[in-house]
Amino acid sequence: MQRIKFVYKQFLREPFWFKILVTSTLLITIIFSNSFFSYNGYYQSIAKLAAAIFFSAYGVKLLRNTLISVIFFVFAVICIYLSWDYFDKAHY
């Protein structure tokens, strides 16, 4: 529980633009990954792209810890690939 409190307090210390970016991309990812939007590839593509932005933002923020930063960037690349894949499937 202390770790969750620490992460929350750390989030509150971030600049306002970072809070807005992280919160909005997380909400977009959750909303467009919903089963209501599962039949439209464009919404799924947007959800994966928002997740990539989320992971990239935290990857840049955590550049001091190289291993964690690389893991976040790998997740971002995977999300970009999945976004492109869903975008291609939406054309068919």
Please tell me about this protein's structure:
The protein is 80% helix and 0% strand. It is mainly alpha-helical. The longest helix is centred in the last third of the chain and has 25 residues, at 66-90. The radius of gyration is 15 Å and the shape is globular. The model has no long low-confidence stretch (mean pLDDT 88).
Write the topology of this structure.
Blueprint: H1 2-12, H2 16-32, H3 41-61, H4 66-90
Helix pairs in contact: 2-3, 3-4
Rg over CA atoms? 15 Å
Helix/sheet category? mainly alpha
Q: N-to-C SSE series?
A: HHHH
Tell me the number of helical segments per DSSP (H or I, 4 or more residues long). Answer: 4
Strand content: under 5%
Global outline:
globular
Report the biggest beta sheet as strand number plus sense, adding barrel if it closes: none
What's the total number of strands? 0
Residue-averaged pLDDT, rounded?
A: 88
Compute the separation of the termini in Å: 47 Å
Concise summary:
With 92 residues, the chain is an all-alpha fold.
